[in-house]
Design brief:
Elements (H helix, E strand, L loop, with lengths): L2 H7 L7 H11 L5 H35 L3 H17 L1 H10 L2 H21 L3 H15 L2 H12 L5 H18 L2 H9 L2 H22 L17 H9 L2 H13 L1 H18 L4 H22 L2 H4 L4 H20 L8 H26 L9 H29 L5 H4 L1 H19 L4
Membrane topology: Multi-pass membrane protein
Protein name: MFS transporter
GO molecular function: transmembrane transporter activity
Length: 432
């Protein structure tokens, strides 16, 4: 499919679209083996970020015992991390446009390593919270710069595939925080497990310095005369694509991320009585099939932009209605097989979220100013995740011995429902 067709379908709103498109074709990055190497190293950083971000799920019960806290205080550990992550998304987007991926990723790895070391040796919950805060600050720079690497090194038609593969790498990082981290915690203990993770982050930073570059040789550096923060946000929100991307990210990736960050293990262990090993295998297995399909499905938005609309609507409503069924199941939690199927559906949606949400985020924007739009999309999704994690912890704490995971997930379902309705309205509205 030609780039002209792709851009026209994705809603470019300029009368000189044809002239602009020809100019963009001539200036597109070449891609190739060097591009895959640079992106691959950046993706390793995202793998580590996802390991750090989701480690609290496998470590939740260990942390509860180590720091002697209840569900509400336990949820504070990943919550402060998410709060910082969300608040930093706009600054992270601007830095992605200004500093470039190489420097941003090195900074992020250093900050995450410091936070992980502090978390490893924390003697109390306050120090642990400070460690998670640093992890969230470092994590906030990672994804947008991996996506930025894709925009700077690959042609536009490959962007959705690169975004999907980025999501795949993130899924692998999330898996590594399930069974492997659980095994490490049980085998070598809390401090050794997390100190080792911090050391790996520092070594990866050295690899980024050695091999990652911001753009292919001969490609011009971006102009320093970039819009202000306000102008960048207004520019992004003036296009329908970034707004659709924000709503899509606020539903498609949310439920499985809520489970991965904190509540997956407690749901399966306490709600269904599974062992930690079985719970980890279920969460790991849920990601296996969707991750295997990513290299094929991730190509669809880039090659067939008209397929984005039915894909995003189908995923949003399937995830929303599936979880609505879980929380509304009469007489308590559904049978394990039903919940397991919903978890698999949610994992599939999470893996597909980047290729759709961030492909929409680029609609109408030049490549050198996509960072802010991507930051808004990421902020939207993780605001919903943060609210889902916190509300579940508060409701579980309030219900005490009669803790109900169905009640705990109601706020998350309502957020997904609101986002799905928003997507439907935006995609039915005629283009201006």
């Amino acid at each position: 499919m030609s780039l002209e067709t792709s851009q026209h379908t994705s809603g470019q709103e300029r009368s000189d679209d044809r002239t602009t498109t020809v100019r963009q074709v001539a200036s597109e990055p070449p891609g190739g083996a060097r591009a895959w190497l640079v992106w691959g190293i950046a993706a390793v950083v995202y793998f580590l970020a996802m390991f750090h971000r989701n480690g609290m799920s496998a470590a939740a019960l260990h942390a509860q015992e180590r720091f002697d806290v209840g569900p509400a205080l336990l949820s504070a550990l990943p919550t402060v991390q998410l709060v910082i992550y969300v608040l930093f998304q706009i600054p992270a987007g601007l830095l992605a446009d200004r500093l470039g991926p190489r420097r941003s990723l090195v900074i992020s790895l250093g900050v995450m390593a410091a936070g992980t070391v502090l978390f490893a040796v924390a003697p109390d919950v306050r120090t642990a919270v400070a460690g998670r805060l640093l992890i969230g600050a470092g994590d906030s720079l990672v994804f947008l710069n991996v996506i930025r690497t894709g925009a700077l090194w690959f042609p536009r038609r490959h962007y959705s595939l690169v975004s999907a593969l980025t999501g795949l790498v993130g899924g692998l990082g999330q898996l590594s925080s399930a069974v492997p981290l659980s095994a490490l915690l049980n085998g070598v203990g809390w401090e050794v497990s997390f100190l080792g993770a911090g050391a790996v982050s520092l070594l990866t930073g050295a690899l980024v310095l050695l091999l990652v570059r911001d753009r292919p040789d001969g490609r011009p550096a971006p102009s320093h005369a970039l819009p202000s923060v306000r102008e960048s946000i207004v520019e992004a929100l003036s296009h329908r694509g970034p707004r659709v991307g924000m709503a899509a990210h606020a539903v498609i990736m949310v439920p499985f991320t809520v489970l991965g960050i904190l509540w997956g293990y407690p749901l399966l262990e306490e709600g269904y009585g599974l062992s930690a090993r079985t719970a980890g295998l279920l969460l790991t297995g849920a990601m296996a099939l969707p991750m295997a399909l990513v290299p094929f499905l991730g190509r669809i938005p880039g090659r067939h932009p008209s397929a984005r609309r039915p894909l995003v609507l189908a995923l949003a409503w399937t995830v929303t209605l599936s979880w609505l069924g879980v929380v509304a199941w009469p007489g308590g939690l559904p049978p394990l097989a039903v919940t397991a199927a919903v978890i698999v559906v949610s994992a599939f949606a999470t893996v597909m979220a980047p290729s759709l949400s961030f492909d929409y985020a680029r609609d109408g924007l030049p490549e050198q100013r996509t960072g802010t739009a991507s930051g808004l999309v990421n902020m939207s999704g993780f605001t919903s995740v943060m609210l889902g994690v916190v509300s579940a912890g508060v409701l579980l704490d309030l219900t005490g011995a009669d803790a109900s995971f169905q009640l705990a997930f109601v706020p998350m379902v309502l957020l997904c429902l609101a986002a799905s309705v928003t997507i439907t309205v935006l995609l039915r509205r005629p283009r201006r």
